[in-house]
Amino acid sequence: MFIDNWNIQTALWLKRVCYERATDNPTALTFLLSAVWHGVYPGYYLTFFTGSLMTLAARNIRSNVRHHFLQSPELKLIYDVMTWIATQVAISYTVAPFVLLSVKPSLQFYSSWYYCLHILCVLVLLLMPARARKKERTDKESIAPPPENVKKDEKTSEHNSHAATNNNSSQREETAWRRPSAPQ
Q1: Is-above-0.85 flag for pTM?
Q2: Where is the signal peptide (predicted)?
């Protein structure tokens, strides 16, 4: 549970610090920042480079294919099962260098797969049109919520002025365990 919460909080931090502020290619830049954050092993960079390719290709596939499967519950179930299986395979393929850490074993692993998922992702990105993603909020709103949307009775830490981005269900529990700051 701790690791899950850590990953949620880290993802929210990456979204706020990098993804929402990047002007060009926010997905690739966010994956690069995550690789730098993890350290200097080449396997981290191979993993996050591959993860960026996978994410961009998956978005293209979803935006071009998913709507065809929403016509009936049976078709949607087929789509959900197929994409769940594809996700499990893609994650396993992507994270192998993260565990192997060095270049040679990582490239041997990808070579044993004939780089098939890398090639597939590049083909999807080249051949399948990327559709514009809908923006749910304006840039200002994604960094900090408008004052009228923030509850006045909600207590937040002095160290975290971005309470709106900490939107998991344990926000109140998270602030409850913190010690109150010492009077100065």
Answers
A1: no
A2: none
